Amino acid sequence: MRPLTEEETRVMFEKIAKYIGENLQLLVDRPDGTYCFRLHNDRVYYVSEKMLKLAANIAGDKLVSLGTCFGKFTKTHKFRLHVTALDYLAPYAKGFGVAAKSTQDCRKVDPMAIVVFHQADIGEYIRHEETLT
């Protein structure tokens, strides 16, 4: 488990900022302690520094996961959020999806038209549970 590089941090923060904007700082500096992001097997984990210090005694190859999985980096180095991050993003989120149409267009759109692009769902979590280690 290692800290994210500058490039990885930038890519991840840009993705998270699409949903929670400037509230991103509130994820790191919380009143109940300081939290950080760590990379392990191409997955980004959100973990308290207190827990991170305790896990330092565990060998990297023996460590399965630590904290909450926020997402993963694809082979093309894009960051994809996991639904497990939703509990942490929801209090600060402007909405967990990307609008495909404006509000005015949504009022007069065909019932089968795409209004919001899918980001994650609980079914996705269940379908890919074995790969979320």
TrEMBL record:
<feature type="domain" description="60S ribosome subunit biogenesis protein NIP7 pre-PUA">
    <location>
        <begin position="1"/>
        <end position="83"/>
    </location>
</feature>
<dbReference type="InterPro" id="IPR015947">
    <property type="entry name" value="PUA-like_sf"/>
</dbReference>
<dbReference type="InterPro" id="IPR055359">
    <property type="entry name" value="Nip7_N_euk"/>
</dbReference>
<protein>
    <submittedName>
        <fullName>Nucleolar pre-rRNA processing protein NIP7</fullName>
    </submittedName>
</protein>
<dbReference type="Pfam" id="PF17833">
    <property type="entry name" value="pre-PUA_NIP7"/>
</dbReference>
<dbReference type="InterPro" id="IPR005155">
    <property type="entry name" value="UPF0113_PUA"/>
</dbReference>
<dbReference type="InterPro" id="IPR040598">
    <property type="entry name" value="NIP7_N"/>
</dbReference>
